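Service request form, structural biology core

Requester: graduate student, group of Dr. S.
Request type: structure prediction, single chain
Budget code: on file
Notes: please return the result as structure tokens.

Sequence provided:
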Amino acid sequence: MDKFIELGQDMAALWMQYWDRYLVGIRSTLILAVAATVIGCLIGLLCGILNTIPYTKNDPLLKRFVLKFIRVIVRIYVEVFRGTPMVLQAVFIYYGLPYFTDQQIMFRGNSGLWLAAIIVVSINTGAYMAESVRGGIISIDPGQTEGARAIGMTHVQTMTSVILPQAFRNILPQIGNNFIINIKDTSVMFVIGFIEFFGQHRNIVGNNNMYFQSAAIEMIGYLTMTLIASLLLRLLERRLDGSDNYELVQADALTMTAGTYNHPGRGTPFDERGKEERERTRQALKHGRDRGER
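Core staff response, request fulfilled:
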């Protein structure tokens, strides 16, 4: 117990001395995670749509070749960036691009670090989201696509108005999962010198050698960010799910279409029959008369 008390005191002392630097690191982590997740989702959306464009043997040869070529490129991109660690991707992009371009492409200054970090995390996120989007699209009942085509909708109209809105709800948990992963995985950007929450921790412990105490603060900070993100995402999911109970509209004339069945003992705001006529109908049905007898 004494050790826990001592740890708490050391953490409090560290926070009181370096709280501003920790908060700057948290801000950088959240900005990078949000920006990279948004850009990664756009990349994944583009790859997912390109990967699901249909074609048949009757289509022109050029169209089939282009679509197959695009799918091969997307597959290579997904497998490479899903199959390699993000820390090595950061090294390859930050140091590899200047190497292969004879220093023509370089990431200079703080803005260069931000650009490199966003590129790395976004591309990595896009590789995961490409498969999530593809799975979300193919999870939609094919009958909806056929129905949209039957009423004359183009492929673009079908995707934007019918398929993607439903697919978005299906892949929303995966989007949230990638955002939470990005909050944590931004910590590997220290390999290129990007200073975020974990980078601030490394700089702070370099001054006082209180590594474990600072790491405990880091753990609490990351856990707090991910828990808040999870809560917000759950609220968004519930909002998109809508209400659990639905009531039929009875006050809109457009809902009372021809042929709608009305209970003989109940009226509606649009029933032209009087109360007496409804009662006679109810009595006739009660005593077993059929339409011919009436």
